[in-house]
Amino acid sequence: MTNDSAAESSVAVKKDSKGKSRTYRPGRIRERNRERILIAAEEEFALNGYKGTTIQNIAERAGLPKSNVLYYFSNKKRMYGAMFDDILARWNKVFTEISPEDDPAEALATFIRNKVEMSRKYPLASRLFAMEIIQGAPFLLDHLRTNMREWVRGRAEVIQSWIDDGRMAPVDPVQLIFLIWSSTQHYADFQVQILMVENKAEYEKRDFDHAAEFLTGVILRGCGLESPK
Amino acid sequence: MTNDSAAESSVAVKKDSKGKSRTYRPGRIRERNRERILIAAEEEFALNGYKGTTIQNIAERAGLPKSNVLYYFSNKKRMYGAMFDDILARWNKVFTEISPEDDPAEALATFIRNKVEMSRKYPLASRLFAMEIIQGAPFLLDHLRTNMREWVRGRAEVIQSWIDDGRMAPVDPVQLIFLIWSSTQHYADFQVQILMVENKAEYEKRDFDHAAEFLTGVILRGCGLESPK
DNA sequence: TCACTTGTTGTCCATTTGTTCAGGAGTCCG
DNA sequence: CGGACTCCTGAACAAATGGACAACAAGTGA
After folding, report:
1. Domain assignment of residue B182, given as a range
2. Are A52 and B47 within 8 A, CB to CB?
3. Residue B101 maps to a domain
4. Which of A41, A46, A95, A195 is most solvent-facing, going by the fewest CB within 10 Å?
């Protein structure tokens, strides 16, 4: 997606000594360790940033020697890239399409709820993404320019059609998407700030429910819509 | 504020050989270089994160030898701290108080506009702050727990009083502050994403005006308020 | 001019870090 | 059991980095 690390998880095709081609399964050892490493990497990168993260730290967190980590991901950059491939794939699965026939209130509410749920379920991914963008998206620039642009454009067109049909207030659709994006993302990215300000030690499930409810309420009303009950 | 770097800019009081105390002006050499370094530091830290930034890079950007940078800020941590002291001071100056007597629509609109203006004027500061929080606020934890908590609490109380007086819809005041905070901050922090999605090379002033207008429109309406003209 | 402080800078060093590599252990299959 | 391949790992290394330091230059008030 963003780099050529895809080869890392694919099935290797090699030729044996007789020149015949044979296929080998990567085996589940590879699968398992790869995953372990990526999970550790997600935590470390989110906590310390790209440069601040050392392969040593990732290895320790994954309970493997550094050399072994480098056996799976030939270098740090690739690891970082592979992580984002994983994250983006995960996100893609969640966000369903919307269409002009949908009910605006329903669709927007669902979007907001999904996004908040995402912040709850994958806060590390959210933070990783945020840090990457803040630093100028050196790895994801291409993704932003292609996939994400198309994604936003598609949504914006549907929203615009709702507006044209007089089914919601005339607000800038792209700005609306940004608003939903940022306000929901905030619960993952600025977790510490929220916890400190609210004097809590940890999030609870109902905090997210409350947040989702608040956001749908205000944003829908802001779009001239009634919240679906 | 967050560390003891205050001493760095204060007037040094030393005793001379005879034991008499004398005061020396730091002179404007110190002032000027300090500022130059901090500006360079802001750019570097925002671009590469704490760990990713090297004193060498800061020095080069400031056009000084590394040793000279270390003469002004004895180590990297202190530099980082001094930077935030500057940033927080800058912010404090901008956000005026609100009171129960104010008009809710007027006050919220002003707040949103100020915050967007902040994103425009000091995008680096905003990003720096965001990265710090995302990484768990190792330097600003204390600030969040004290100053920021009080700040939010104070605002929330005023908003609540507006609600109690039936002057706006009953929305959670703290969540409302978070919403405004995140949605406005977004224009600075996720600049690259926005530019890519909108297929632009650079922000223009009117982009911010447009954003502020959109946000006040949606959020105020979401709070059951009319936008002040 | 003198005494003292402040400012400047090149050099040095211990440590960390990404990455390479060579060799060995484990696994699978005919 | 033997060969082919996958998986593992300790050791080594060049580059980079934060910081210490000493010697020197410039500024300042009396």
Report:
1. 95-222
2. no
3. yes
4. A95
